[in-house]
Amino acid sequence: MLKKKEKYVVAVVGATGAVGNEMIAVLEERNFPIEKLRLFASERSEGNTLQFEGSEIPVETLNEDSFKGIDIALFSAGAERSKIWASIAAKSGCVVIDNSSQWRMDPEVPLVVPEVNAHDISRHKGIIANPNCSTIQMVVALKPVHDAARIKRVVVTTFQAVSGTGKKAMDELLQQTADLLNFKEIQKNVYPHQIAFNVLPQIDKFLENGYTKEEMKMVDETKKIMGDNTIRVTATTVRVPVFRCHSESVNIETERKMTSNEVRSVLAKAPGIVVFDAPEKSVYPLPIDVAGKDLVYVGRIREDESIDNGINMWVVSDNLRKGAALNAVQIAEELIK
After folding, report:
1. Is 193 a catalytic residue?
2. In CATH, what number does 8-131+324-336 get?
3. Which residue among 61, 103, 228, 276 has the highest number of C-beta atoms inside a 10 angstrom radius?
4. Strand order of the sheet with strand 95-98?
5. Which CATH architecture has domain 135-319?
6. What's the pLDDT tens digit per position in 22-79?
7. Interatomic CA distance for residues 131 and 217, integer angstroms
8. Active site residue 133
9. What is the pLDDT of residue 42?
10. Catalytic residue among 94, 124, 245, 246
11. Is a pLDDT exceeding 80 seen at residue 208?
12. From 94, 124, 133, 245, the catalytic residue
């Protein structure tokens, strides 16, 4: 367990990636009580430095002794590295908050969104999992509705930004866009098809049931975070040519009927949510407005006229912040309370 201190030694593993960079920025912005920050990445980044609170922090490579003396480690280095290093870190007495898919469905590891299930943090055994980006923003919006009227079923279609894949995907979208506008032949390296001016109904690999891994992550993680296996969830995840912010069309069926005004009222009082919903004035959440912001924005709230107790909503959040780095830091904040 983490010892209570005034300041903590914190590590970011995968510090040079898009999410790692964002973790460093969020730690600084939120004035997390840091005694010392250590940064780790792959061998090719060793010797580089990154800025934190006006100082240049060197980037190190991991070894068996790296986590000695570290209190909290924020991991965003992929599932394979987390599989090896998170256990080593936990055995060194460090609490790991892991952003990969490696530990999310492990029954011994809490899967946490602080606005939804902060109480689960207390049962950690050295590792806490940060959920999938698209799941995080959805469950923040689902929880207040579930508490008010119990959700029976969720149908979600996501419109996910390329930054969810990483910097190479962002570079590919930029390069393909420039090439197409200059009548040049495009290169495809990250995605199986052109992403510029296109929509890809595939995120991650396809499974035997016809769903992708990303879709099944949303199904399984939602039930675990919400603590209710009876909620039925089906998902279609789509990659769109947007740099930052995931958008979601969410259809909810509840046990008792809620009016759209009741849903707006419940969401407006909930932590971490902005209700941004005046469609008659063309006011609804857009990725370009939400990028760089910390909250989950909800709009287009309306009753589903095809079923008795249905609600539709449009949910947008910054996938690098609330969908990854911010949620990890919020878990750390809960941990030290």
Report:
1. no
2. 3.40.50.720
3. 103
4. 49-52, 55-60, 34-40, 8-13, 72-75, 95-98, 127-129
5. 2-Layer Sandwich (3.30)
6. 999 999 999 999 999 999 998 888 889 999 999 999 999 999 999 999 999 999 999 9
7. 9
8. yes
9. 87
10. 246
11. yes
12. 133
